[in-house]
Structure formats: structure tokens, C-alpha cells
Write a structure and sequence with these properties.
GO terms for molecular function: pentosyltransferase activity. The protein has 20 helices and no strands. The chain is mainly α and about 475 residues long.
Length: about 475
Amino acid sequence: MPVPSRPTRRFLTVLALICLLGATIRVSYVAFFKPDVSPCAASWLEKNSLSDITGRTTYFIGRAPDNICGDALVYHDGANLLAEGEGFISPIRFIYTDGARFDSADHPPLYMIYLAGFSVVGLDSVLAHQLASVFLGVVSIAIIGLLGRRLANERAGLIAAFLASIYVYIWINDALVMSETIAITATATLLLLTYRYVSDPSRRNLVLLGLATGATVLTRAELLLYVPLVMPFLVWRVSRAWRPFLLRLVAIGALAAAVTAPWVIRNLTTFEKPVTLSTGVGITLTYANCEQSYYGNLVGYWYFPCITPAPDEPDQSLDEVILRKRGLDYMAAHKSRIPVVVMARVGRQWGLYRPLQHVELDNFDDRPPALSRIGLAQYYAFMAMAIGGAVVLYRRKVWLWPLLSMFVIVTITAATSYGTTRFRTPAEVAIVVLAGIAIDAGLNRWWRRSADDTDVDPGVAPAPGAEAVSENSSSPSS
């Protein structure tokens, strides 16, 4: 059967219906099922804990949104301040306390910039930002479908897209106003362009891949690991000679650096101490390396009160230095415990250590336990199928490393910080794609048996480039 150069009309029609299903699930949750008051909302926490201790009502009560919490409040308010021309500043004190204006680099900026684009045109409510995130989630479904199609065939792509549309650990992010949503979209795009470049290492695809790499790094800092883990091997596959290898590798790196440079230069010239992608390392090292996260019931997790007393320097980078030293000092004083803690972190990350406790802990990331239990069951099923999908691609001699690198990146992230479900989101893309391929392979086998060894399944169109990503293919020159 000839390899189609474009998706068939049937594929696009079914993919659109799957995207509609995904949008319906996401919008329905936002509109009808998401709790009105998040269990981690600032006002809820202060009203039920701090106010009891201090005997007074604190500054969030009646002012901060009740249906988002934690980092989501920073993204939401930060995007609105950015749209108002205030720049990247810390919104908490500026809005809720004394109006102090502090430059901020809490997170890489792309998600906040994305939300600010909606705020500029008046769509600045929590609901508007949730729906903006839903749009990204629907785009992710389509890209995942295209990725599965490229790696296997159209039916595998549609199955992968369907799994992405119903998978709790993917769609719930869209209601939380958190960067996991854009990280999933960026990861799916990066993987799709990676395999597209393997199939056709043209200059155009090189440019797209380089730009996508830089954009992905601006969604989640740990995705920078994709560059050293994948790019050298990718470029060598399509080069096979040192001169084109070096030229292409430098070109991709330069394009990615050009995308990230404005943010990095802004940080280096804004703060007293060097800051590149974010100032989040210090606070993470502090609350992930303390008594409760090393020896208590939360081993391998984090404990926010460990940052107390919190530094309050006039420059965020100075707070970062203080918190980083606090975390590193604790690690140095408890070296013998680190291997146990790292194993617990990785075990939590992959649902292998105290998963039911982790379901309850996810509640403080605004993930209701009932939904988390469904998501955990889906995760176990999809992960088992993903292993089968990896075996299928390996037997077909399809290059697996870009997909598998997401599991490595997530593991490194957990080992060096803490284990939590939301850190697994880059790997969720690979999980649903591989699971879709496994299901498709199972259907192919069933079809052959039920059709008395018929050679071709007329319902499956092979993907463009599926042969080109295999070990034995020859690559065209760029």
C-alpha cells in the first residue's frame, strides 16, 4: 500500500470528534464538577489553620480566588499584571499585602505569557484562563494523534488521541491554571517534530525543531534535559559524518538559545545573583530536604513549613541563595539518608511507593482524591500497555529513544527534587502514544486471526515517515 503524504479525510474527521470529546470533558469539569473552593486555596488554608493560630483574619480572606491555589494563583495574577504592563513581578505582595513590587522569575515564562495574551483582550478571569488552558489541552490531543500516526499508523494515532482525551492525569491540568498544560502541548510538539526531522532532515524541519526546543524549555525548566539526552543522537542519525553533524547540532542549539535568550538575559541583568530559567531551585531544595521529607510520613515528598523562617530579601535571587544553602546544608548533614529518600521520590513519581497516600497528597495540588484514584487506575493500565507499545516499536525497528527520554527526564526530576504526580506530565505524552500503538497492534493481531490470515487490514492507513524512523532506513540529505 502506498504511503500517504497527508492524513486521510477519515483520520482528520475522527480526530476532530475525539478533540470535541476531550473539550467536552474538560469544559464540563470546569463548569460543573470542579470544587468551588480548592482544598489548597490560600483563603481556605489561612481560614482553617493560620487564623486559628494567630487569632486574626489574614490578608487573602475575601480577596484571592477560591477555585485555584498555590502556583496557579501566581500564574493567574502574574499574567494579569503582565498584561497591565507591570512586567514579570511577584503578584502576592503586590496585590494582596503592601503593594511592594519585586521582580520575579519563579517559573519559566511561556505559560504566563500565553495567559497574558488573553488578559490583554479582557479575558482575565480565572474561568477565562481555565478555558484558555482547555484550548491548549485540545491542541495537545490533536498533536498526540499526529504523533501516533507518524510512529505507526492512523488508527494508532486515533487511539492515542482518544486516550489523551480521557486520561485524568492529562485533562485535569487544564482546570488548574498550571504550567503542566502547556508543558504537555510543548512536549507532544517537540516529539512530533523530532520524528519528523528523523524522517526528513530538511532545513525547514531543523528550524522548526530548534524553535520548538527553545519554547519547550520555557514551559518547564527540567525539559532542558532533552537537549543533551536526545539532540546529539538525533543529529548523528541523520548526519553520519562529523561536519554535517556539528553544523546541524550547532544550528539547533543556536535556534533554541535564540528563543530562550530574552528570558535568560532579562534574569541575568535583573537580579543581583545569577538567575537563568527560574529561581525555583532554592525553595524546592529546602522543603524537599528536611526532617519530614527525610524521616517522617512524607519521605520522598515535600513539606512546605520547612521553608520557615522564609527569607524576605529585596531581591528574589538573594532569597534563592539562602534557601538553596539551607537545603544543601541539610543534605550534607544527612548524607546516609539520601539513597533511601531518592528511592522514595522515584517510587512516588512512578506510583510504586505509597500510591494511595499520594492520591490524598495530590489533593493539595487541587486534584480531588476521587479523580486521582481513577487517574491512578488509568495510569497503571496505560503504563502496562505502553511497555507493550515500546516492544512493538522496537520490533519494528523504530527509534524509541526520544519517547523513552521523557521517562528519564521525569525520573531525574523526581530524584533531584521530590516525587509528585504533576512532575510526570512530560512522560504522560509518551505513555498514551505507546499505549495507543500497543492497542493498535493487538487489534491488528485479532484482525488477522479473525480474517483467516488476511494480509492487510483495510481500516488502517500507514503513517508517513513510519519507515523513515526505523533503524534500517536511509535519510535524505538536508
